Amino acid sequence: MTTQIPTDHRYKQTVSRRFSQAVDTYDQHNLLQQEVLKLLLPLLPTSPRGLWLDLGCGTGESTRLLSQQLSQKQIIAADLSPAMLMKTREKLPVSTVCADAEALPFAEKAFAGIWSSLAIQWCLQRHQLFNELYRVLSAEGELVISTLLEGSLEQFDQGWRQVDGSVHHNRYPSAALLETELMAAGFTQVRVLQQPLTLYFTTLTALTDSLRKVGASTLSDVPQAQFAKSKWRAFSQFYESLRCPDGLPLTYQVGFIYAKKRNL
After folding, report:
1. What are 24-60's pLDDT values in tens digits?
2. Rounded CA gap, 93 and 38, in Å?
3. d(C-alpha 140, C-alpha 173), whole Å
4. 126-178 pLDDT, tens per residue?
5. CATH T-level fold of 7-153+170-198+252-261
6. Which one in 31, 34, 75, 154 has a CA-CA gap of 20 to 30 Å to 195?
7. Does this model's pTM top 0.70?
């Protein structure tokens, strides 16, 4: 008799493996993360106190920025990928924990704040995620998070829909839905600010590398397979029609989230 592995467990294993495989190319291709972190940093409180969790720390760039506002002893960096955590430790002497954001291995009220950039979009069960974040925050603890919103990868999506009618990336929630879900979890002072960010690439290969070589090529509901050459050629022709003086565009809708736990 074989044990059936839950679908979400297989998905998380795949996400962890993809990011671990991308650990050596991530920093070279993480253009989006670099831009998003610049915009997320001002949402941090002026003088953050207590212990903070960097959730989905990746290779440690987000942790490095957080350490400019906090001492390294005030930071715990967590990620689903063991390889990413190793890279973080190479950059900074911070405590690291391999953790699933939907089942955090921390006690209740362990953190004064949670900082996370472009990580929670990989979570399948957001209600469970937000309940966990609420659980591990102390009273009046703060969330400072960025994630992807509905409408991200617009050009990529449009191209593949024309070619084969399929979605080739994960689906993302609206800002309004995230706000509703956070309030349902008990958070207060919830703000979800949406901002489009467009990156430009000289070639389609460079554009797809910006996804593939940071590990962002996993879909929860679309089988991974080699595309037929004819489909790829049609997709390439569509994307070339979008070329502008800056290059080939790829637009993300980024959500910047601030919220607090109630003072119970």
Report:
1. 777 777 888 999 999 999 999 888 899 999 999 999 9
2. 22
3. 26
4. 999 999 999 999 999 999 999 999 999 999 889 888 887 766 567 899 999 99
5. Rossmann fold (3.40.50)
6. 75
7. yes
